[in-house]
Amino acid sequence: MELSTADLESSRQAARSEREREVQQEEGGDVKLVITLPGGEKLNQSFKTGVTVAYVKALVAQQAGLDFGKLRLLLGGKPLIDPLSLADCPGIEPGREVAVEVALV
């Protein structure tokens, strides 16, 4: 079976499109987190729903000068678990604005 140059290029383009679609699925859509710090200050930050809770915590710790090891993120009073992605957390969906609280332990 012989592939023409046009067939080969068409196959390559289809493979590229499929890879791009898979990457977009893994990264997820954008969600805006309104993060309330212990002193009441708010941080507004957009994230892809594919990032982990630990990634968000690290960014918050860096921006707010807090100790990562003592920082907890809460959604509706319930802790968000570090290794989970935001997409795995109930109540966090692409296109939404979600209020998250920071607690120090």
Automatic annotation (TrEMBL):
PANTHER family assigned: UBIQUITIN-LIKE DOMAIN-CONTAINING PROTEIN
Protein name: Ubiquitin-like domain-containing protein
Domain Ubiquitin-like: from-to ranges: 31-89
InterPro entries per record: Ubiquitin-like_dom (IPR000626), Ubiquitin-like_domsf (IPR029071)
Residues of the signal peptide: none
Basic and acidic residues bias spans: 15-24
Region (Disordered): 1-27
SUPFAM superfamilies per UniProt: Ubiquitin-like
Source superkingdom: Eukaryota
PROSITE patterns hit by this protein: UBIQUITIN_2
Pfam families cross-referenced by the UniProt entry: ubiquitin
